[in-house]
Design brief:
By secondary structure, the chain is α/β, with parallel strands linked by helices. Strands 1, 2, 3, 4, 5, 6, 7, 8 and 9 form a nine-stranded mixed sheet that branches. Strand 2, helix 2 and strand 3 form a beta-alpha-beta unit.
């Protein structure tokens, strides 16, 4: 059985991290290593790891460096496969690793396995969140081109994975590189997915491997969250850097209008405009550093989207 490295990114979530580590320990897989990349936590996370989890390797960055922490954990890993996890993710069964690795072993062209993610509903308008529906993929994490209601229980080739819980083939990351650290946080998986596809690898969604996201979020309860600015800036940044210009404009222009209307409706217009202005200010820099995906990759993306619409 190949070695599996579990790389967990942590920042000031000691108790969530404890639950994640206990869940990893409960995975029925004999050859594994556990790595916690800590982004300068001040809540005693590192001390807790040293005292209660001596089997874990700690990569301490000393400060919050966002995506760079995840990359540091990946670089330290020794496994053939790398389970990248957020610190609020837990496995829904002890055999998730086995199911995921067995699927990857069947096809050597798969670079990343996108997992089934359940979560409790968000606490909108102050109401307590009900218990999670473990039989439904959470809508807040579904970014695949196929409709969730129809495809959440089916396996399919996709152009997306969620960075909060994904299984990588380490050799693929060694080839194309890890997450783009200049983004700091948000949408980094989009850039990595494009680079994997551009290198000829495949991304597969598998509903058999199931995770639980223990920190629900929704647009109505994060109005002041800086994620809105970063998502706007970073998504447009990646598209302008990687897509051919006509394709990039077709993506950016309608979404700029749509997301603006959405920000007005849900009350985070200031954060949206901040992200949009940051993107506009960075356009000359992005244009100078453009690394456009190959025409074959563009055709591949369109085939994935076309097959999704056809279903």
């Amino acid at each position: 059985m190949p070695k599996v490295s579990y790389v967990i990114l942590n920042y000031n979530r000691r108790e969530r991290l404890r639950a994640a580590l206990d869940s990893v320990r409960g995975q029925e897989w004999p050859d594994k290593e556990i790595i916690v990349a800590d982004n300068g936590s001040t809540d005693g996370s590192v001390e807790m790891l040293q005292q209660d989890y001596p089997d874990c390797r700690v990569v301490a960055l000393g400060e919050n460096r966002g995506i760079a922490g995840r990359n540091a954990g990946i670089r330290a890993s020794m496994g053939k496969y790398v389970f990248c996890l957020d610190n609020d993710m837990t496995f829904l069964s002890p055999d998730v690793t086995r199911l995921a690795v067995e699927r990857m072993e069947k096809e050597s062209t798969i670079a990343a396995l996108s997992l089934f993610i359940a979560e409790p509903p968000s606490k909108w308008h102050g109401h307590p969140a009900p218990e999670p529906n473990l039989d439904e993929f959470t809508p807040t994490h579904w970014w695949h081109p196929r409709p969730r209601e129809r495809w959440q229980f089916e396996e399919f080739v996709t152009s997306h994975f969620n960075e909060a819980a994904v299984l990588f083939r380490k050799a693929c990351l060694d080839q194309v590189g890890a997450y783009p650290e200049e983004l700091f946080w948000a949408c980094e998986e989009m850039d990595l997915a494009l680079r994997l596809l551009d290198a000829g690898w495949a991304i597969l969604y598998s509903p058999a491997a199931r995770m639980l996201h223990n920190e629900p979020r929704g647009i109505l309860n994060v109005q002041a969250n800086p994620r809105h600015a970063l998502i706007t800036r970073n998504r447009f940044w990646i598209v302008l850097k990687r897509y051919p210009l006509p394709m990039a404009l077709r993506y950016i222009v309608p979404r700029a209008a749509l997301w603006g209307c959405r920000s007005i409706r849900y009350g985070y217009t200031g954060s949206y405009l901040k992200g949009l202005l940051q993107f506009v200010w960075m356009i000359p820099r992005i244009l100078r550093g453009r690394e456009v995906i190959a025409p074959a990759t563009v055709r591949r993306l369109r085939e994935i989207e076309t097959s999704a619409r056809g279903e």
